[in-house]
Amino acid sequence: MSRPQLVARPLVRSLRQATGTTAATCPSRPIALRPFSSTPSRKDETTTTTSTPTEPSSDAQKLAADAALLGQKKPPPYPSMIKQGTEEQLSQFMAPQLGSRRRRAALATTGNIPFEQLPYQCFQEARKILAQDREEKVAKIVAETAKIKRLEAADASTFRGGEPYKQKRLESLRAHVEQLKILADINDPLVKRRFEDGQGDMSKPIYRYLAHRKWSRMEREIILQRIEQFHIVPDLLPKFQPTMSVKMTFRGYKTPPGTILDSRITETAPTLRMQVFDKGDRLFSVVVLDADVPDAETDSFQKRLHFMATNVPWSPTRDTLPLSRLGTESATPSPEPGALAVPWLPPYAQKGAPYHRLAVFILEQKDNAPLDVAKLQEMYDGQGRDGFSVKSFRDKFPVTPVGFTMFRTVWDENTADVMTRHGIPGADLEFKRQRVMSLKPPRKARGWEAKRQGPKFRHLWKYTKRIKGVKF
């Protein structure tokens, strides 16, 4: 008998003597359900429910119906039991589209109970503490707001620093109020649930803060990696740090930054999903350029503008911008606000050329001042596409780059058809690497070759003539 069995056998025997029954004949005991409130229940109240195996209870039937609606394969045996296990085991009775494993387990065990009324004593007690903390934060917000109003009504001459000190103090107080608004709701489970479900109101500071925190953890790091990996800095800009989230889709297909796309997919303009994290309305300009246009005459690469839109109004509550609807009166269902300066030119690459980097820049217009669309069309439409530079555009107009994403294109089986449909010349052009001959003088034979150059070894000359770099 092993050591664990020797230790466990006396414990099992004592437990059997204490209960008076054996493990084989031990009847199932009812499970005590915890009440909603933290107060103890009365002695005459029934706190347990039992059901016979032959007659299923109404709760079990309801649970089975809910499981069928959620796409579960089989309901859990007890309503109050939370399954533990791997993702494959949990997927046997929980729908995978409902979020995290913890949330799926909670939904599978609570039925149609509202989220704020979940029957967990610790959860309800924590909500009471959070409610008290929120009341304190709201009281501070009211006090700080009253202080701001008094400071705005005060005369700047009463301060030692004058008007600059007054404006700096107001700015500090407003920032403190915004921070208090975030702290008042940062721990609210209802707020976190709405944000995870994608139902957050971006006009509120708490949801913008949560969105910025989520973007900074992974998406921003990926964008910074692509900027460094593909040498966007310093090829296109001397320095650049994105401050907003930009995602791109072509015909409904998600496009991670740096993806190589088929020319048939990129024939139409993409849809951008953009999110800003600070309040207020603003005007954006969208620029798409090719950073790797080969120039055979100078044996180098140039840049080419593929799309430009300006005066696009944006706010934290907006998130989608279809570039194909900009400046189009007959767009379906409706045109997007904004001015189209340079229409979409399908990206292409000739055969034999390396991949082309197509960079998408979002530029914020300073002081929400609109740009002259006619001047942009005169400068960059038509022949003005070639040689376009983001740095030069930023210097000529009051814009600042704030967002970025990119994709790549190469020659594929559909590129020639796309270029023919849009009247783009150069589909029959193929780039080949020019062979550079060595400038070193021919080397004399030595070793095995030098010893076998005479007529005696004529039968071996056929091998030496195949040696690359040896002249005969």
TrEMBL record:
<comment type="function">
    <text>Component of the mitochondrial ribosome (mitoribosome), a dedicated translation machinery responsible for the synthesis of mitochondrial genome-encoded proteins, including at least some of the essential transmembrane subunits of the mitochondrial respiratory chain. The mitoribosomes are attached to the mitochondrial inner membrane and translation products are cotranslationally integrated into the membrane.</text>
</comment>
<dbReference type="InterPro" id="IPR008914">
    <property type="entry name" value="PEBP"/>
</dbReference>
<feature type="compositionally biased region" description="Low complexity">
    <location>
        <begin position="47"/>
        <end position="61"/>
    </location>
</feature>
<protein>
    <recommendedName>
        <fullName>Large ribosomal subunit protein mL38</fullName>
    </recommendedName>
</protein>
<dbReference type="InterPro" id="IPR036610">
    <property type="entry name" value="PEBP-like_sf"/>
</dbReference>
<feature type="region of interest" description="Disordered">
    <location>
        <begin position="18"/>
        <end position="61"/>
    </location>
</feature>
<dbReference type="InterPro" id="IPR035810">
    <property type="entry name" value="PEBP_euk"/>
</dbReference>
<dbReference type="GO" id="GO:0005739">
    <property type="term" value="C:mitochondrion"/>
</dbReference>
<comment type="similarity">
    <text>Belongs to the phosphatidylethanolamine-binding protein family. Mitochondrion-specific ribosomal protein mL38 subfamily.</text>
</comment>
<dbReference type="Pfam" id="PF01161">
    <property type="entry name" value="PBP"/>
</dbReference>
<keyword id="KW-0496">Mitochondrion</keyword>
